[in-house]
Description:
The structure holds two protein chains of two kinds. By secondary structure, chain A is mainly β.
Amino acid sequence: MRRLAVLALALAAACSEISEVESGPTKTFYRPTGIGVYAGALLVASSNSDLRYDGETGGSVIAVDASGPLADGPVRAPWLGGINIRSFAGELAVADPAVCPALGEPLALVPVRGSDLLYRVRLGAGGAPSCDGCELSLRGTQFTDPFAVTVACAPGFARAYVGWLRSVGGRAWLTQVDLTQPDLAADGAVQHSDRAGVGTLGAFAFDPDRKRLWAAKSATSNSAILRWWDLAGDCRIDVDELSGGCRGGAAALPDGLDPHGIALANGDPTRMYVAVRIFDARAAAVSGVRVGDVDGLLLVVNLVDDLAGQTHLQIEKQISIGYGASAVRVLPARAGRRDVVAALAADDGVLWLYDDDVDALVAVGRDAFGHALVGAQPFGLAVDPTVRAGSVRVHVGSWAESFVTTYDVNLADIDASPPPDPDLPHIQGGTP
Amino acid sequence: MSRARILLLGALALSAAACTSRDVGGQAARLRQPSAIAIFHGYHFGDAADLRPFLVIANESRNDLTLVDARVNAGDAAVVSAPVLLRPLALPFPDRPAQLAAASLQDGKPDVLVAVSAGDQVLQLVGTWLPDFAVVGAQDVDLADDVLAIAALPSAPGTARLAVALAGAGGDPAAVNRLAVVQYRRAADGTAVEVDTSYGTSGVAAGGLGFHVAGLAAMPGDPNRVYAATRDDIEPGVRGVAQIDVSAPGAWTVRALGARAGTRLVAAARVRERRVDSVALDAAAFDLLQPPVERVYAVLDEASCGLQETIDCGVVVLDPALDTSVRGHSIPDDWSGWMPYRAPIRLRTRALALAVAGPTVNPPSGAAEDQVYQDDYMRLATSAAETSATTGVGVVAGEDRNVHFLDLGRFKVASSIAAPVAAKATVGQSTELDTRIWFQEIGGEVFPDDPAAHVLLTPGYTPDENWRVAWQATLPGLELRAAEAIAIDPDHVRLAVQIGEGNPGDPACTRAPCAGRLLSQVARLYHPALGVVAGDTALAEPADIAVIRAKVGGAELCTGAPPLGSSTTNPDVQKEFEADVTGILPPSAGSPGGELVLARRTLRTLERSPDAATLAAWSTCFDNLAAAAATGLEGLVVTIRSGELVLLGDARGYAGRPVFGAPYTLEYRAAAGPDEDALAASCPLADWDGELPAPPGVLDCNGAGCDRAVCERLVLARKVRRYHHLAEDCRGDADCLARYPTVTFPVVNGPALRFQVGNQLRAADATDLRARGLVLGFTTTSGVGAYFFDPGSASAQANGAMAFDRSPWDAASGYRLLVSYPGDQVVDVSPSLLPLSVGVVR
C-alpha cells in the first residue's frame, strides 16, 4: 500500500511540475481514450495524458453531432458541448434511459486514473455534457487507476462497473455503482470486490436475461479467464457468495490467450466475441511475466451451460486480427442473421469488421505509406446504434493523432461497405 | 481496387524487382506472423532449367511471402536470400496475406500458386515461373465473396483446379457459402500460367451449398469430389462432412457423410487399414492384396461431440463408400464389433490444424530394411525408441502447442504400448476412521494384499482416469450451490438448484419457484447424467442426500449441526442439516432443470452417523424449512450427496453406484447387451443437451415414459466407449494374459472397470459401520503412450499444417509435416526418423 501511496504522490508532484495552467480544450479532442454515442452525438473523453494542459482540468468530455454527412479527411463536426474533467480519463460508457429505463437521465460515465474518480456526466437532450458535482470518488486503500467502465441495465436495475489497473497484490478489483441510488453514501450503493483473483478486469459485457456481468480478466502469467457474476436477487458483490453474495464463476481461455475485449451477441447471451492477444505462455510461466504478444485473434465463442448449470466456453471460430487486439463491439442486430462485429487491433492500427453470419471480413487497415487509416494508436471504439439507410457508423479514436475516425458499415453486406481509404473522415473536434 | 491498394501494389512491385537474387542460404527468414503455408514448384528465379519446390510462408503482418527452399530440411540454410543482407527474399503481397494454395499442372513445369489477402475475394496468382515471383495482376480472379478456404483438386494434365469456399452475402441460404472451382492452364508460351477461360464462366464455376464451410479437402487422384467440414446440418438431421461432386461445373451435388456430429477440420487420403486381427507394428499388420481405401478424416466439433453426446470428440474416420442414408452415418464399422461405429481417434488437445501424408516415393536409405518404406508404407515413430510401418500419417497441431502424429493405417494416435493397462490405489480416507474402503476379491470377502490385481480392466476400453469410490460423496457440480425451495406439505419440500429473482410484474408469481422469473445457474437435476437418485423405500433403494446450510442469507433457518464427519470444534463452522431426496420432478416453467422432492432424513443401513440428537436437530430444521418455504424460499446453499457409495471420475464425473461386497462393472455394454444406439432409442432424455426449456418429447421420452435405469446405462456407456483402437496382444504371454482374465485377444472387448469393494475393519474393536469420509481413490492407465513433438517456445495457436514428400531430393528426410505458428515460426518435422528430424524456419 505504501508503494501505491508513494507512486500517487510522485505522480501528483510530477504533474504539478510539468503541467500548464491552461485547461484542456473543450472543442478539440486531445489524447482521446474513451468514446461513446448517445442519440447520434459522439462523446469523446480526452485524457490529456501527456499533461500538456492543466492536470486538474486538462481532460474533457466533448459532444459533437456525428450523425450526419462528414467531409473526407480532417473535419470538425457540429459542436454540442464540452466540459473539462481531470486528466487521465479512461474509457467512456453511455447510460441511455432508452435502453436503461431505471435511469432518470442519460449519463456518460468516465473513470479517471490518478484521482480515482468516476465522472457521471449528465447528457442533455442532444447529448451536451454537463457536470455539477458529478464526480464520484471511488478511492480506496487497495486499488487505484480505474480505467474500464460499463453500464449494466435490466428492468429496475442500472449499475456502473469499473475495473482497476493497479492494486495491492495485483488483485483484480471491481467496483459497482448503483446508478439508481440517489444517495451514493448509502450502504451498498458503491461496492468493491476483489473476488476475481489476481489480474485486471479490462472489459465488460452484460447479459440482462440473467443479470450476468462478464469481465475479461487479463493473464498475468499464462492463464486468463472470463469471469462472471450473477447479479440477480439484489445480491452484493462485496460479500462472500456463501453468505449471500453474488455467485459467479469463470470460464478459462486456452493458455497463451489474453482477453482485451468482449461483447455479447445481440439477443443471444450464449454467444460472445472475444478479442485476445496471443503470447508465449511457456515463457511467461517460466519468467512470471508476459513476454510480448505474437498475434491477436477475434474469437467467436459459445457460452455453454453444463448440466450442473455452470457456464463453459467453447471456441467456435478464431480469426487472426493482428497485434494489439483490444476493443470489440457488436453492431445493431439484423433480423434472422448473426451479428456484425467490430474489433480493434490497436498496435497494428486496424479496425476489423466481421460478419458472423457468413464469415466475411473487412479490414480498415493502412494506406500505401503504412499509416493506419483509423489513426495511430487507436484507443476507443464505439458504434452508433442507429441504422441509417442500411448503414451503421463505427467510430474509432486515435490517441496519438487526437481524432476520431468514422466508418460507415453496410450492415447487410459488409463487403459492400465503402472501400476504406485515407480519406475517411477524421473528426478532430467540434466546430469552433 | 482502392487507390491505396494500387499505390501499395506499385510500391511493392518496385521493391520486389530490387530484391531478386540467386543466392541461397545464410539468413534467417525473419517471419512475421505466419498465417499460411504452401509448397509449390517454380523456376528458381526464372531459370527454366531449375524447377524446384519452394515452401512459401505468408507473413501477415509484414505483407509479404517468404520463400524457403523445400528440398532441404528447414532452417537458416534453406532460406532464399535477397541481395541485401538485411533480410531474406520476400515477395510483397498487399493487405495481410492470409491464405495460400498451390496446385500442379502435372506437366513438369511451374505450379499454380495463389494467395489471398485477409477478408479478400480475389485469388491473386503468383508468378512461379517469373524471375521475381511477382503477382500477375492480369490473372486476378474476383470471386465476389470472401474466400474462406481453398483446396487443390486433381485435374487433367496442363490444367490445375482450386476449390474455394466462399462466404456469401447472407440472407438466402443457397447463396451463403458458395463453393467455386477455379481452373488454370498452361499459357500458350508453354511457361506461364493463366486462368482457363474455357472452364465455367471465365475460368470459374460456382454454386451454393447452403451450409457454412469450416474446412475443405480433396481426395488424392479424385478430380470430381471435394470434402467440406461443417458444423451445420448437411441434410436434415445429418451432420458430418459434405461430399461435393464438382464434375459438372456449377451444378454441384452434395452428399452427407454422417459423422454423428459436426466437423470443423477435414483431410482425405487413400490408405490401407490394418487387418482386424493384427496388432503388429510392422507391415505384417496390412494386407497388400487388398486395395487401398478412401478415407476422410475430420476433427469433430466440440459443441456436438463428447461423453454426453452421440460420439466422443476426436478425429472421426469416414468412408465415402458408406451410405449415410442407409446407416445413419458413414463411419466404418467398429473392428471389435461392439460399437455401432468406429470410435474416433482420441486427441488430448483441441485440434487447430490437420493434414495427412502418404508414403514417400523413395525409401529413406539404400539399406535393405528401409526398402519397405516407399510407395505403400511409411515409417512412423511411436515413441522415442520405436517405430512402426504404416500406410498414412496424420498431423494435428494442437491447442496444447504440440504436434501430434496419427497412424492412419491403424486409425489411432502414434503410440506404443509402453505401459500395461493398469489400476493403482492412490488415496485412502482419513486415518481417524477405523475402517476403510478397500478392494476385495471379486465375488469374495477377502481384502487382498495386491488390490490392483483384483481390478479387472480391458485394453482399449479402460481410460486414463482418476477414480474415487466414496461413501456419501458430493455429486459432481452439485456442491454448495444456490437453490430455491417451496413446500409441498409439512413433510415434503421441492428444491430447485438455481438462482432466481422474483417477478413482481406478475401477480400470480408471488412465490418461488414460479414461472416467468429471471433464472441462472440452473442445474438440470432431471437429467440422468447428473446422477441424482431418489430413494425408493419399496425397492429398498437409498435416497441421495441434500445437505442444506442452516443460514439462509443472513438469517438462521435453524440451529442445525456441524457437517457430518467433521471433527472441527470451531464454533463458527457453518451449521447445516440434511434431508432425503425422495423424488425427482421433471422440469417446469419455474424450475426448468427439474426439482428434487425432499423429506426428513432417515438413517441408511449400517450408517455410523448421525446420532439421535443430530437427527432430531435436522428434523427440526426440516420443519422450519417447510414452514419458511411455504410461499417459496430463495438463497439456500445446498450440496447433493450420494445416499451410499458412488463412483466418480475426474473427467467422467458420475460413473455409477457400486455397493459394498458386490462386484461392480462399468462397461460400454455387456456381451449380449444393447449398444449405445439401442439404449438411446429408449431414452431420448439422455440426449437433452441442457437446453432450456427442454424440448417437448424429451422429458417423457416421446410419450413412452423414460426408464431411468435405461437412461443411466446409456449415460455410463457413453463415458466408457472404446478409448483406443489398438490393444495389447497377450497371445503367447502368460503374464499378460493373467492381467486380463476375462477378455480374449486380439479382438478385445470387455469392461472398462470391474471391481468389488468392502468396508475393511482396521482395528480390533471396529464395527462395520459406514462413515462420511470413506473414500478409495485409484487411477487407471490406458497404456497408450501417445508420441508427439513439442516445438517449444512461440508455438501457440498453430494456424496451418501440411505434408510434403522430400524424398525425391533428400531421401533421408522422408515425408515432412509442416506447421505454421503466428509466433514467427514454421516447424518442419518428420516422425519417419528417430530421433525426430526437426527444422524450424523463423
